[in-house]
Predict the 3D structure of the following.
Amino acid sequence: MLVYVLKRLIYALPTALGVTLVTFMLVYLAPGDPLNAIAPADAPENVINALKATYGLDRPLPVRYGLWLWRALQGDLGASIASGRAVSSEVFAAVSNTLLLAGAAALLGVLLGCVLGGLAGYRSGSWVDRIASALSVVGVSIPHYWLGLVLTIVFSIQLGWLPAMGAGPGDSDGWRWDIAHLRHLVLPAVTLAVIPMGIITRTVRALVAETLNQEFVVSLQARGLGAGRIFRHVAKNAAPTVLAVAGLQVGYLMGGSILVETVFAWPGTGFMLNTAIFQRDIPLLQGTILVLCLFFVVLNLAVDLLQPLLDPRIAR
Amino acid sequence: MSFLKIHLAAGLLALPLALAAITAQAETVARYGISMADIPLTTGQPDRGAGAYQFTGHTIYDPLIAWEANIGTRPGKLIPGLATEWKVDPKDSKVWTFKLRKGVKFHDGSDFKADAVVWNLDKVLNDKSPQFDAKQAAQVKPRIPSIASFKKIDDYTVEITTKDTDALFPYQLPWFLVGSPAQWEKMGRDWAKVATQPSGTGPFKLDKLVPRERAELVKNAGYWDQSRIPKTDRIVLVPIPDAVTRANALLNGQVDLIETPPPDMLPQLAAGKFRIVQNVTPHVWPYHFSTQPGSPWTDIRVRKAANLAIDRASIVKLLGGQAVAAKGQLDPSSPWFGKPSFDLKYDLPAARALMAAAGYSAAKPLKAKIIIAQGGTGQMLSLPMNEYIQQSLAEVNIQVEFQVVELENLYLHWRAGAKADMNAGKGITGINLGYVTADPFYALTRFAYGKYIAPNGVNWGGYDNPKVNEAIEQIRSSFDTKVQDKLLAFVHQQMVDDALMMWVVHDTNPHALSPKVKQFIQAQHWFQDLTTIGM
């Protein structure tokens, strides 16, 4: 087990390094100029050149990458070109908001997905299966932002039950676990939860239906085991795959909420990335993508480490 | 039961105290959903373009010469700000003297004097000064290009020398804002800290800044201009870049007014008793033609035909009425509009005749590539508008092909000029970019003066008319504003008669107001006066 853990940890390092390189190259490959974020459109050449020197954008790319990586390893992600604020503080403030949203959406998506998928698998071919399968197809197919807008129109504007935007009341200084703040979480979390819900429903349904047809389940039934105990066996067999799929989905939720965060003006990484992309705010883009990618790497690592606990054969 | 009684009694006792507290807290608050993704820079010179000055520029700070922005029924004019008077030296027309306003204090309590003006000019123009801030300099340096040197004469007099004689120099000064040197010292000479606790002399003080979420401006009751004391105690600026989200927030009551509601939500807003306010705004949405050799637009007949092929009224309809049809670079209400002989109207037969005279027909159409942005500030509904124009131009045998890029990338093509390889080399002969036309330089001279042909300026297409050049040179040395206005009108009418661009519409910078907002004056400018918002 220890060897397995060490192996996974060692594999994570080149992945993380690769992520930094790809992140860096991608943002420089995109057309546009980061100085547009800070200089007026008609800024003369001498002003642009002075700014390039100030932000180190006049240096060769490998030098910039080396310097950025060296600083990033020390926890310094530089300063945003657009705002001048430290990228690390910007990213971590936004990451905490995104984590909150992604966490709530993941909880909702995984929970609903497991319940609907389990029911559909157990009642394969029945009307329960048909409803659950239809919901999962809708969940996977529906565009996020469209659903977000529709939910806003219904629950915020028509009914006036929930706020239309933001992560807290107007005078909020950060997230708090109270009703006023939780009301802001409902619509974006539901919007974001539909895709993982759909995918997990389909996965769980297929796994449960497949496992129920396996010989060991028939033999368990023949031995006269109750439905509850058989369910435990089925769940245990399905768990590693569901965990892997759920891990990936949580990772996607962390990085894939740009549209939902924009529709709900949720101050997370997606909202920030959207702005940073249009402003070509390279340090902010690099820092945000790096942190999100590292989250993904860590999440996959956590899933890899959890799987042997559920199925010891994986560690062999 | 006794437990309930105790609580009831306690509640009754607390009631008068609660009522007193409510009375004391009767603060008027306006929550303003702005279209920007973040709060503009608060250190003195706002970033994010001309539209940002109304939020963290002219609210917290004052310029030496201000723009009259608390009037909506006519175009504003230059008015005294922190300078009570200014005049050019009759012996040397490059030397300007500014008399400063006495008794003005910064929000931190320090006095406003000539030293502060010099210190602020050094902050953005002298990279050797300790207070130099590259970011602020980048914002304002291109807007005050005429300044060569400056010095203090006495505590309330400053002298500024321009590089050349420039009678339009005062128009540059509303962009230059004055912050407190004492506050910078107090904040440990750290601009990042100043951003959270800035100090100017403006009608509002910054009470709170939460990056990307909100900025709270509170009334400066001791503001030197008693006629501009804010009508609302607190204005909360909330960045909501997505137009639909912004309108939803207004409908839901999370904000009280918003900038730029989406056109297709206007009926819904109107039905909900929300008020739409808009006004003539110094902005134009044109196709700027290349007149460099090899460009099909070198022929004035073709340029005029393009202008006559556009049904501007339909485009205004497409925009939900949030625009006005262009008659030139400027709106006819501008004192610099002049009397152009070329009337920008929808006249297909005349356009076709001009194209035929230029040698084009359905069998031999004119082909041109125009670079456009997919959207962004000032670009209005870029793609639908461009598609409409593409079809309109096809009706007069002009086949337009688009190169669609992001706005940031479009700026690179714009600065480079039509002649640059990235444009001429790729067959690009026109650019579609929304232009701010706030003052004579921004509206006219930067596009019309031969000396500003890109890359020396943003005369993108290479327009070089000797008569216009001569007029611009006269403007720069005419200190009589009436003469200036006359010459500027001549420049504009010449631009229109030469069909320098294909002008389509002017933005009207619409705002949607909830019934809670009782007062709001929208100036005919990008500079708006937030002191006029009353709840």
